[in-house]
């Protein structure tokens, strides 16, 4: 499956991929190594997590093709990732918006640099 990135979304993520980082589209559902146990909510919340190229992403074994390379995700996100996937930038909030042909999945997708988070 493929995910389309608008020019604005690509520009936000390109700075990371040019440094050799991997992109993970994480459904924050409390599963997988990047979700805190018990952190899930009753809302659908996605994040783009930027990780080093050698980071273990085995929980995120499926990938989407994009102009910036593969974007990894976990099986529990499959139900949301239907045809026509797109990441674009909300001009007001400057956050990413994840949508497909049928619906807006998440209006406020944050980009999280895992190196910054794990160093705290």
UniProtKB/TrEMBL annotation:
Q: Which SUPFAM superfamilies match?
A: HesB-like domain (SSF89360)
Q: Which residues form a coiled coil?
A: none
Its domain of life reads Bacteria
Q: Where is the Core domain?
A: 1-113
InterPro entries reported for this sequence: ATAP_core_dom, HesB-like_dom_sf
Pfam families the UniProt entry points to: Fe-S_biosyn
- Specify the protein name: Core domain-containing protein
